[in-house]
Structure formats: C-alpha cells, structure tokens
Design a protein that fits this description.
Ubiquitin-like (UB roll); alpha+beta; rod-shaped; about 30% strand
Amino acid sequence: MDTEFAVNMAKERGLDLVEVAPDARPPVCKILDYGKYKYQQKKKEHDAKKKQHQVVIKEVRVRPKIDEHDLETKMRKAREFLEAGDKLQVNMLFRGREHQFRDRGMVVMQDIKERLSDVSKCEREPSRDGHRVIMVLQPLKTK
C-alpha cells in the first residue's frame, strides 16, 4: 500500500502509522496508538526482567581449625544460599603457623563439599591461591 494513503488512513482514525518491522522487504507498518504501543513494550520488558534470576556469588569464610559447631552454623547458611539459587564461594584463610597444616585445610574443604553435595556440585575444586584455599560450588538445577 502507498505510504501517503496509509498515513491518511491513520489520521482519519486518530491513530499513528508505526513501522514494526523495518528490516523486512517490504517494511511492515501498523496503524495503532503509538503511546499505548510504547507502554505495552515497556511492560513486556519489565515482566521479562522479573522472571530473570541473576546469579550472585555468596561467600562463606572458614578457618582450618574451625570447630564442629561453628562449621555446622556456616553450613546451614551456605545451604540457604545454594537453595536460593546463588553460587557459593568457600574461602579458607591461613594465618601464621596455620600454613604448616594445609593438609588439614584441604580435609575441611572436602568435608564441606560432602556436606553440601545434596544441594550443590563443585564448579571449582579447592585450590591454593596465596594464603587461601578457594572452592566454588554451584546449586543443582532447581525445580
């Protein structure tokens, strides 16, 4: 249809001629209320953003000589993070003479990994990074 004819049709109805597919050959236009169209597009984008889940990396810090009760408390919080769908970074810091007992630190990290195995899988195995050992766990697929 001729462009001028389409514009006149739109004016008669009190609406706008809006190009909805400019890349198509020939370009596709619609006669509609442009303000309402923009509002609906904005609302669709907003609803799409609502349904997205941004993955956040939460951190739990532990020490190599951590007590059993303290470790249980940390694991309870870590489980909450994983069940919420967030990744978890377990960070173990060694200070002073603790550097001599890195094997003890690795045992604690493996224990943490086993305790959380029902809600997570290991994305990054425990590895040394200077004065710390870092492990990253990601949640299992949620229902």
